[in-house]
Amino acid sequence: MCMGFGCNAAGIVGCRIIDSPRERLIAIITNNFVPCNGRFPTLIAIITMFFVGATGGVIQSIVSTMLLTVVILFGIFMTFAVSALLSKTILKGETSAFTLELPPYRKPKILEIIVRSLFDRTLFVLGRAIVISAPAGIVIWILANISISDCTLLAYCSDFLNPFAQALGMDGTILLAFILGFPANEIVIPIIIMSYMATGSIIKLDNLTELRQLLVNNGWTWITAISTMLFSLMHFPCSTTCLTIKKETQSIKWTAISFLVPTVIGIIICFLFANIARLFI
Question: How far is CA 81 from CA 4, 27, 35, 223, 279, in A?
Fold first, then answer.
């Protein structure tokens, strides 16, 4: 779980230390409820824009930190809740004991650590990312730059997804951004900006005030903001994480389950939150 805060793919690899195959699968399936570095910028930006204020200051920073902590704790709670559910349903079994034996301390070999880290981890993970990221980038460019009847394919896809996304408290553009952001969670917000501004390329705005105004002009409310945060916290793993799950489990079935479990739970929670919140406005 702790490794997942940096990268969910690293958290999946870290599950190797669990001896029980059943409990290892539970840890792998629930690892995605922990927000990784790719989702932190989205969460922090939304909290700052809609619930704290983008002006800065010590008080704003403290409030932002507290709200982000609440989001993280909710993700940890969902990890434990779903783990308990899985252990009583599709992954029933006896709870095993876990003993971590510390090896004898040895003086680290700096050069060897750098070399092994570079080749065994960094290049390996980057290679997996490129396998899906490059084709996905081409798909995003095609959708954003090919038009039919003065409307881009990206807009058509957004309109198609809009009724379902509205039921989840979002809109078609946000949901499409999550789908197109499958290669990397970091590009979700840039895709949303690109779609709203109809620029045909991924761009960035100068500050969060401009971004907030853009989002509000396109119908964002506090319900949209919270729903987007909830779905960011609980949706399908990124491409690199999925490839890592496939390698670690050697099973397409468990990879699919790891993909579907957080996504279905995210859809249910967003649906319940959005429709309950609308009763009070």
Answer: 17, 12, 16, 24, 27
Written as one letter, the residue type at 110 is I
pLDDT of residue 201: 60
Nearest-angstrom CA–CA distance, 43 and 56? 16
Nearest-10 crossing angle of helices 58-88, 40-47: 130
- Contact criterion met (CB below 8 Å) for 27 and 16: no
Alpha carbon distance 56, 62 (integer Å): 10
* Torsion (CA) 255, 259, 265, 268 in degrees, nearest 10: -140
* Residue 151, SS3 per DSSP: strand
Beta bridge partners of 147: 152
Tokens 């995003």 belong to: 140
Q: What is the pLDDT of residue 129?
A: 61
Determine the pLDDT at residue 2.
74
Which residues of the chain are under the pLDDT cut of 50?
A: none
**Coarse DSSP helix, strand, coil percentages of the chain, rounded to the nearest 5 percent:** 70, 0, 25
Q: Which of 205, 201, 182 is nearest to 143 (CA)?
A: 201
Rounded Cα–Cα distance for residues 73 and 75 (Å): 5
36 close to 7: Cβ distance less than 8 angstroms: yes
φ, ψ for residue 24, nearest 5 deg: -65, -40
Using an 8 Å Cβ cutoff, are 15 and 31 in contact?
Answer: yes
How many other β-carbons are positioned within 10 Å of the β-carbon of residue 203? 10
pLDDT digits (tens, 9 = 90+) for 147-188: 888 788 888 888 999 999 999 999 999 999 999 888 888 888
User: Residue 272: how many CA atoms within 13 Å on its side-chain side?
Assistant: 7
CB atoms within 10 A of CB 246: 17
Query: End-to-end distance of the chain based on CA atoms, in angstroms?
Result: 37
